Each structure stands twice: as structure tokens, then as C-alpha cells.
Structure prediction request, 1056 residues.
Amino acid sequence: MTFVRNAWYVAGWSPTFGRELTPLTIMDEDIVVFRTEAGKAVALTDECPHKRLPLSKGKLIGDSLQCGYHGLTFGCDGKCLRVPGQSNLPPSAWVRAYPLHEARGILWIWMGEVEKADPALVFDLPEFDDPRWAPHHGDALQIESNYLALADNLCDPAHVSFVHPTTLGNPESEDVPIDCAREGRTVVTSRWIRDAPPVGFFKAFGNFEGNVDRWHYYYLHAPCVAVIDFGSAASDEAIGEEERDKGVRLFALHFLTPVSETRSIDHWMHLRNIGLDDEEMGERMNVQFRIAFDEDKAILEAIQAREAKPPARRPLRIAVDRGPNLLRRVIAEMLEEESSPSDEKEPVQAVS
Amino acid sequence: MTFVRNAWYVAGWSPTFGRELTPLTIMDEDIVVFRTEAGKAVALTDECPHKRLPLSKGKLIGDSLQCGYHGLTFGCDGKCLRVPGQSNLPPSAWVRAYPLHEARGILWIWMGEVEKADPALVFDLPEFDDPRWAPHHGDALQIESNYLALADNLCDPAHVSFVHPTTLGNPESEDVPIDCAREGRTVVTSRWIRDAPPVGFFKAFGNFEGNVDRWHYYYLHAPCVAVIDFGSAASDEAIGEEERDKGVRLFALHFLTPVSETRSIDHWMHLRNIGLDDEEMGERMNVQFRIAFDEDKAILEAIQAREAKPPARRPLRIAVDRGPNLLRRVIAEMLEEESSPSDEKEPVQAVS
Amino acid sequence: MTFVRNAWYVAGWSPTFGRELTPLTIMDEDIVVFRTEAGKAVALTDECPHKRLPLSKGKLIGDSLQCGYHGLTFGCDGKCLRVPGQSNLPPSAWVRAYPLHEARGILWIWMGEVEKADPALVFDLPEFDDPRWAPHHGDALQIESNYLALADNLCDPAHVSFVHPTTLGNPESEDVPIDCAREGRTVVTSRWIRDAPPVGFFKAFGNFEGNVDRWHYYYLHAPCVAVIDFGSAASDEAIGEEERDKGVRLFALHFLTPVSETRSIDHWMHLRNIGLDDEEMGERMNVQFRIAFDEDKAILEAIQAREAKPPARRPLRIAVDRGPNLLRRVIAEMLEEESSPSDEKEPVQAVS
Prediction:
């Protein structure tokens, strides 16, 4: 099992959820989401504890959820309010209620211990509030792949030269070395490709006439949030690493949600520092992103399909794996931490 | 394994079977059914003992069944009559012949020990011969569910309020207590809902102007036959429990056939005490039944799908489960009885 | 595991392969085939040793194959030529290269030990070069069946009377005895049906007016090549067994390729001694063959589907099984030989 539970995951874009009962599966858990009459989102275990019918097959009565088989009714906190045909409520008549947090048009869900669900831990970016930046939502890409293979891909600037030759990469970057660092639970991989022709994306949106300096900074906030800071500036401006705002700069955000060990959802969006009022430019950029992310999806699904067969050999490790290797260590630490008792007692002193 | 073998099961409606080779699967056993030239139904194991080809891929030669691979030919009793290319018949050249019984337009099959296949045990109802009643055949509903979950449903009047709100139930019955009794291998669950508006079915067929008294008697003859006696009478008539013939009364019959541990067929039909010569009324009633039984199918298949995941918790038991719990005890007894040696010897006296 | 590795198998018809990357699965091994710029066929393991992406998702750069994920590049011998982002080549950076041989419009692949891949062992027939014979390619029939069940079928003249009643068989042959012999690793089953009406195939192509003598000789060259010599001559000519060229005579060739334990491909073709320049006759014959081979496919797939259930009984053995039984012994010997150490040392003398 590779799931880190104590983390906020994206349940979906906010407008996806309303008064209808929406079933989701996250980390193999079946969850039903709905909004109360007042509009607040609620997430409960999508299974009646009586006969296991998904509660999403039932109906809302006000803010209560009634099972579609025998009418057991649950409140927003998951407690049973009614068992038709009897006056008492059995103590085991409840379902799990998941902590939720809603911000920036995104509904976040906490899959771990309730008391650790701190809204301050929800991912955010100051640029969302910065008038020099325009955010633009994207899609929810369902990928038949373990989420870690997808996260590997987001610590791995090397693949763009080969997987995205028409949009985000080109041959000039094939052998450019990659920097790799860890900052707490964030893995940062990056490289600059100086004085080279612009890639397809910046040909389309940069109006560059000559060579550019191009950068890729991948921030993978383990387990499941990636920020890709990438952009280009005319090479004759010779900007420094910290002067990226002088160029055409984007943040591509990926929020990974593990559905099962072999399926994930990637909710993606971008922020950009050009065409702030140009919605149509945002959509045209998303068309390019969709091309690129479908290329990733094809690669990752082909690899996942191979996992059905045991590997014939030990995997080959190469230089560009440093980012993914670092990520796997961070994930292993987080899993190890979750498997330890959360409130450890002082060791009992052995009587001597 | 949850299958009770020593019982008559419905193989299908009689008109379904003719001279063509019809493959069936019952309790995971592959069976081929056909009629002889004289019209008598025959059921044999649908697998040649030579190379395992389904015999239903072969052809009838008179009343004999010839395998489509090498021409081995079997008679109606399952004995091999011919092995092309050799003159002798190997002793192991036979297939199983299943006892059959045909009555009331239904073909019944016995899945257990041949010597126990007593036609007197085939389900029947005196109302089939009663001129005050009209029988009307229905469908064969294939349900992706273990047959016991389906049988539970047929010991469970409580679900109609929630699963069938437009046809057989309404909110007035939600909290009305249920009587539950065992009569031999029959589980009887029942309730009366007195002085309430009629449900959709009786609005359509009863011509009631005011409130009605409505009854539901569910007779589950374990393992696989259910008779649901339900009806309504005007409340101001104040009929007694044994005066149900004074109202609009129906018997809905369900014959459950286990296909596998996760699939069942429900052959259903009804008898009614109104509109005896009105075939068209019978069809309109069946339209209502189809709506209701498709609602059951949706519920049961959603539950069966959940069985692919181990349950996270022990199931919650509630008051309305008494009927299904009783049924499970009857089934357990029948399975226990079948697993015991059928002709037990006196225990040998230990030498002391 | 039933696969004999040290043998030449058909990878496909030669024109199937070109500069595009063609993925194949043989014996559960994923293989990618392509032609070099000079037209020579190459077969490599279709999986990058780095992240397991199928190399067939990559692209050719000249005669080298570049992985579509991180650009690792392999030569025609399977050795890695480049790992982008680093200058050294890890010793484990290679994929397997399979020996190939191309002849008669067929690409053959060797699945076993490379040093045993002797082109002299590739199946051939002198009639390919004989001006009195016309070869005619057929199809590649994918069959959901273990290849040995298919090979059984090709040691089994008895089935044609029952499986192919309109094309290759008729009732006259049902009880005619079959001769069976072993010649090295070839199983030969045969029979003559003398003085009987012609079967559908020879009605269509023989212009016979009366009865014919019909022969079937099945040569199964274990593990995977079958030659079926069959034909007819007018009975009043009373030809001898070695005078088959006097009649209308065909060789139907079947080249079996095991894809997995439950799937096989049958590449089939024919040679004929009539209508040598009549391509259209060849196509009409293939139409008849397609009918017959689809009948085999239906039988074999129905049997394979049954293998998902454990058999309830020991299989019945009958007289016509002698050919298949002999084949299974040859296969068992070949598997036994492959599992033994290939260069056995003299046993060490125990010190006494």
C-alpha cells in the first residue's frame, strides 16, 4: 500500500458538487459528496453499514442522507438519525465523515486522522492573489497508473525532450544536466536551457524572434501537489535565475488524487503572467497542455499495463532518476511515520 | 458454497425449450436442455467427457445428442451410444442426466441426488386451478447477485417503502411493525397498513376513492420459491386478516435459480383475483412489476459489486432483519443436512 | 509452462514488417520488430530496462531504437548506445535481440538459446521450388486457445467428419480407421477413404463426376508446424498411396505461434498442384479454408473457455486420440530436454 493518508487531496473542482449525490473513490475508499441546503460540502462513507448499499443510491432529505434500501438516515457528521421500524439507534449506526476544505475553486479532502486535518496545510500559492497573475482552471485527467509513477514524472524534467517534442520540449535540452534538491517534503528538480530555439509552447505564446533562455523548476510537494514553474526569456536579455518574472512565465499545477493502486486523477490548471485578461489565451494554452498531458497519460498507462507481468530484470537506474529517487525516499518516510503509533508513550522503564 | 442441491429449481418457462440445444448454467454447472421428437424435455451435462466441448455445440440426431468435435453420441439418459472410430463403448463414456418436471408452463430441474427427486415436492398453488384466479406469466430477470441476497429481499416487506415508492410502497408503511414466523422451511413475514392512501399499484388497478387497508404476506419457501400475497381493500370495509379475498388480491411468484455465487435468475409471474379475462390488465400489471423488480435488481447488483471489496466493518443488524435472519438459519440447516452422510450407520460400539 | 523454446516460430508474413515498430507477444514475451534502412528485420525485447515502457512506443533513429520516455537508445544487437543526461553507459543497459530468419515470405524467430538458432532447422518444403506446385499465402488466425490444443487438432483427421461437414469432411469417413506413426519429432496420422462421394472442397475444385478416393496425411513437426497433405482422385483410377500426384492434391500449412498459455496465432497457407497460374482459384480455395479454420477456432475456443473451470472428471480417452497422445509425448520429451543442463559434465566420482 503506497497511500499517504495524512494529507489534503483534491476531491474535485468546486462547481462539480451540488445537491446531487456524487460518488468518488479515493485510496480505494468509496465516498459520497453533496452540498447542504446552505451550500456547504459534506463527504461521507458511501456505504450503508446495514447492507452495504452505496448511500449515493439513496436521496437527500434536507441535509440528511437516506439509504435507498431500508431508509437508514445519516446526518452531515455521519451519525445515524433514524432506523425505520425501530425506535432505538444502534451505537454502530454511523458512517465516516471526512474533513473538507474549500478554496480557490477547489474542494480538498483529508483522508487521514481527523484531528490532524489542519486547514493551514492546504496547498496555496501567493500568486492566486497577485494582480500580475491570471489563474486558469484545466481538467481532471483520469490515468490508469499508480499515483507515484505520475509523481515521478513530475520530478523529472528530462522526459519533456522525448515525450513532449511539439509543445514543452525540444532536442536542445536532451543532455542538459538537472539540479535536484530536497526542501523538507518538497523535491525540487530544475534546469535552464540557455540560448536555444523556443519550444512549441513559447513559439505560440512568446513572440520570440531569436533564441531564448528556458527554465523548468518542478516543485513536488509530497505526496500529491506539483508546481511546475517554466518559462522563457529572450537570450539577449541574459536574465538571472531569480529574474524569471521578466520572461513569459507559467505555473502548471497538478493535484494528484490516488483512486486505487492502479488508477489516479490529475486535476491540473495554470497561472500565467501574460494575457491576464485574455481568457481565450488561457484556453489556447490549455489546448497545448492537454496535448502534453495526454502524452504523459499514454506513457504512464503503457508502463502500468506492464506491471501486470512481473519484471524480468532489476530496473536500470540512470542519472535523471535522482528526482524520482528523492521523492520515493520522502514518501517512504511519510508512510513510515504513519505506520508508527501517533502518540507514543515514554518507554516503560524496565525494572532492574 | 451456498447452494442447496436437493430442491427443484426453475430451468425456464416451458415455451423457451424446443428442439434446439439450449445451454444453461445452474449452480455453476453447465447443462444442455432440448426436447425429444415426442416433446419431452431432457437435461444433460453440457460437456463432452472426451475433450470438454459443450455438447450444445453439437447437434441432435433424432433424440440423441452428437458432440460437435468427434461425434460421440449420447442418449436421453446420458449414456454414450456411439464412439466413432471404435466399436466398444468405454464405461466412463456418459454424461449426467438431470431429473426434470414440467407443470404450469414451467420446466423444473432437480440439482441434487437423483433418488430424492420427488415430483410431489415441486411447488404448486391451488389457485392455479381456481376459476376465481387468473395466472399471468412474467419475465426471467437476470441479476448479478448471489441468490440469497435476492431471497433476503423476499423476506423483507420493509424495503418496499424505500425501494418501490411509485408502485408497491409509500411512506405510510415506513415504521409499521413486521410479523415474522417460521413454518417448517417456509419463512413468513407480513404486515398490514391500515387506513392509508393506496400505493401506486392499487391506485392504477383498484378504483379506490378513499383510504385502504393494505397487506403484504411474504412466503419464502426455502431455498428458492417466494409467494407474495398482497392486496388492498377499502378501509371502511374493515376486513379481517382472513378475508383478503374480499379485496383486490395478487400473488406475485418469484422462482430463484442460482447461476453462480454472484449471479441469479428470477423467473416471476402473478395470479390475480380481478380482471380474470382481461389479458391486457395482466400485462399492465406486469409493467408495474417490471419497474419494481428492476429497482430491486439495481439495489442488489450495487450491493453485490461491493462484495468484491472485503467489508470494513461488521454488518449492522436492525429490527427489520428478522425475516432474512430466519431464512439464513433455514438455509444453514438445509446445507448442514446435505453435507451429512445420507445413510448414516449406527455408531460402532467401542470395545471396552 | 508448455512452451518449447528451442524452435523457430513464425513471427509473421514478411510484408507485415517495415520501418514501423511492430509489437508482438510470443510465449508471453513482448517483442518489437522493425526493419533497418537496408530492409533487414530486427527483433528486440519490447521493454526499456529503465522504466519498462514498451520500446515500440518510441521511434527509430536510423537503425537505432529510441525509448519514448527518456531517450535511451538501442542498436540492432540490443546494446544501449546512448543514455541522455550522462556520458557513461551502465553495463545492464541492453535488451535481448532475437535471432531471425526470413524465407518464402515468412519471418521466423528463435525463442530459445541463441547459439542453437540454426537456420538449417527452419521449416521448408521442396514443393516451394517445384514448377508443378503453386504456393498461396493465407491469413493469420488468432485463436483463444493453448497452442497444444490446436496442435492436437492437427494430428487428428477424425474431427473433419464432424467439424467440417461442408468443406473437408463428410459422413463416409466417420468410422474409417486412422494410421498413426512417429518419425523423429514428427507425428504422422493418415487415412484413405476409398470409393466415396467427394467432399465439398473437391466438388468445388475437382470436377469429379463419380466417387473418389480421398486421402488425409497430417504431418505435425513438433512443436509448431503442420503440413496436411490431402487430395482426391477418381476411384476408377485406383491410384496407389504413393501416386497422390495423379490426383488433385494440396498441402495446407499451419504455423502455430504460442502467444500465451491461452492464446495462439495460426499462420496458414496452401500449395496446390492444379490451377498453377490461377490466382483466383487460390483465393477461392482460401475462402473454403477460412470457413473450415473458423469452425476449428470456434471448437477450440469453447474448449479453452471451459478450462477456466476445473474439470469434474478425468478426460475420456478414445481410439482417435492416438495421434494427439503421441504428439504430447514428443512435446514432453522436448520440454524435458530443455529443462536439463545443456552441457552436462561427467558426474564427479565420489571419493570412497
